[in-house]
Design a protein that fits this description.
Layout: H1 2-20, E1 23-30, E2 36-41, E3 50-52, E4 57-63, E5 73-77, E6 82-87, H2 91-94, E7 99-104, E8 109-113, E9 118-122
Parallel strand pairs: 1-7
Antiparallel strand pairs: 1-4, 2-3, 2-5, 5-6, 7-8, 8-9
Length: 143
């Protein structure tokens, strides 16, 4: 009788734990002293352009694919270039905290590495996305 009860509740509880560990919160912060624009997108989803004041944040949840987790990738585009905001092999993606944090300004992007508790500079990528999926957005910033 006890075995039957475990069989009914066991896999369900394990499935819930697996599902909850497969979501990550991405936090992107405007690190510049004034207004900058940002648009984040994946191959499946896209958000509208966000206009962020200095130190304002844009947050979104990523559902990491259970099958082929390497196919889960989110890009963010600014008027200075693009950067990959989430990939399965980033330090934050495998860290117990459910957050991947980014800062961006007119020169660089910075990702928080929770394993060493430091912000790491990352150069903007060239515009490698197709124009209809994103690429570098038209935006303006004021110095």
């Amino acid at each position: 009788m006890v075995l039957v009860a475990f069989m009914v509740t066991g896999p369900e509880a394990a499935g819930d734990a697996e599902t909850s560990s497969k979501r990550k919160l991405i936090v992107v912060t405007n690190n510049h002293t004034s207004y900058l624009s940002l648009r984040c997108f994946s191959f499946d989803n896209a958000f509208d352009v966000q206009h962020l004041n200095s130190w304002e944040q844009f947050k979104f949840m990523v559902d990491v694919r259970v099958v082929f987790p390497s196919a889960t990738m989110w890009n963010c585009s600014t008027n200075m270039g693009t950067f990959v905001a989430f990939r399965h092999d980033y330090a934050c993606s495998n860290h117990p905290s459910n957050t991947c944090q980014w800062r961006f300004d007119e020169h660089m992007t910075y990702v928080y590495d929770p394993t060493v508790a430091l912000w790491v500079a990352v150069e903007y990528n060239p515009n490698y996305e197709s124009l209809n999926r994103g690429g570098v957005i038209r935006g303006y910033y004021v110095n």
